[in-house]
């Protein structure tokens, strides 16, 4: 519509990306240019009214004052905001915050006492409130998003202190901006997570809890959100075929608006044509656990919702329907759900959330040798009646004691090949009283095998009357091994070796006996070759027994441990799998693949996160040897600090404030000592200190310990 103006001034800017109408008059329209100029056009006269060249880079937004028709402001990519008076040819005032982020959005205050206040959003996600009467520093400022942000002040008078912000981080947040202290950050009172980056956000007129948004990439739809129920849109408009660049509500109407898109269309939308995703949402949720447990959640207003949908359907078809006695409003308040839980009989011995939390807080996974860790964890399971888990821990300790795992975890442990003298007090009990022999000392490893698995379950008398059986494989046809018996001895071997009963030997077929005749003849020849003098010397010698060589050879328990881990994994008990892996250590890579270990660790960490067991999760990450898991401790560790001197918000990890160059000094308000670890503080008065000191203080007093008089609330 302005092409004909080109004949009057060809130096006027041909690129007019944004147009902003004047609210108090229909005769003026402001436009921005890519070279930083702000141009005002007189529509009635068809001429250029004003041309301001204050910005050094492209101007992005122009706003007219809502009361004073001669005042307007502009923002540009040079991070500056200028105020203009239409009666003066040059800008009258500039607002600079010291930031270098381009201005993205601006808006003047709507309600009384807010008309001289305007809010600015930049590409860094910062929100700043300025007063036209004070240009040295902003009234309020805080970081709302990561990336470019859009803003919208609430038009409802009752909620006039609410501001909606949206950004490229796919979030829409609602803030109580009047309660945000100067230079401090605050928590959003509502937060809506969208599916794509948001370019514009607007409040819906006459609806103080609903906002409209459009996306800048990937999503062409326009959504209406109810901030009280942020997980699903209230309404959706799917008419554009390309990105919606902007939208505007029709004046005085809350059920109609106009939108413009990059598809070249300007569309007039009406709420009667809106798509309501909530009407198609399933109000019945069902889930099944790997162990067979079924949980069903039902909305308490399911029948009321179905009746409302049927009522609206009959009304749309033109049928005569009576007035409804009770209206269905899913956004008015919280809707209770009814939970139905179906537990099969086979789940009696499964791990419940109560046991999961107890084990996570009481298991000992490091700091001692393997046997002690397994014994401690077995006692933890016994304390709450989980006998099978207790036996499993004892079995793990026993199996690992028969392999190299125990030696890796206890390097100072006495090895099994060391020579140990036989004590006179040690005795081996046998059911044959005439054949008492010195005890067999196994260095304590096999002293009470069954007692480790089932303590107190086997009587001493039963353990003392073991019946020995010598099968075919135990028959020694080559005489006594020299390593077992030596002629130089300190202990005497008491008892008659030939007094073994015939019942100790298994009956064999006649053919097997004949097969041994040759070996028997060899033994006879060896015995006959001993002279009489050597016989007398042997009779006077003392015989020594190397009992450590009499113990059974070690066997490989790793396949049994792997089978045990796989069984717990199939049952969904990843807590047991991860706990056993951490107790055994990195050597478990020999039996369990790294990819499977990583899957167990990730599942266990997710469960710990759901139950808010942060300390246990941190210990698991610290103890894990998998790089992909141990690297999790370096994620999400950045927090923004506020300088107590200049109230500037830190944007880097430096220990010094970028504005006043002072070092961040966090001193406990109670003990007056620097806080080197976790810091706790009040977001309103900004006083804090050691969390333990604050906890003790707020047990007896609600006021801030600094004496500022603020009623702090300690989050227990």
UniProtKB/TrEMBL annotation:
UniProt entry tagged with the keyword Repeat: yes
A Gene Ontology cellular-component term: Seh1-associated complex
SUPFAM superfamilies the UniProt entry points to: WD40 repeat-like (SSF50978)
Pfam families per record: WD40 (PF00400), zf-RING_16 (PF17120)
Keyword tags: Repeat, WD repeat
SMART domains found in the cross-reference section: WD40
Domain WDR59/RTC1-like RING zinc finger: 666-714
Family membership noted in the UniProt record: Belongs to the WD repeat WDR24 family.
Name this protein carries in UniProt: GATOR2 complex protein WDR24
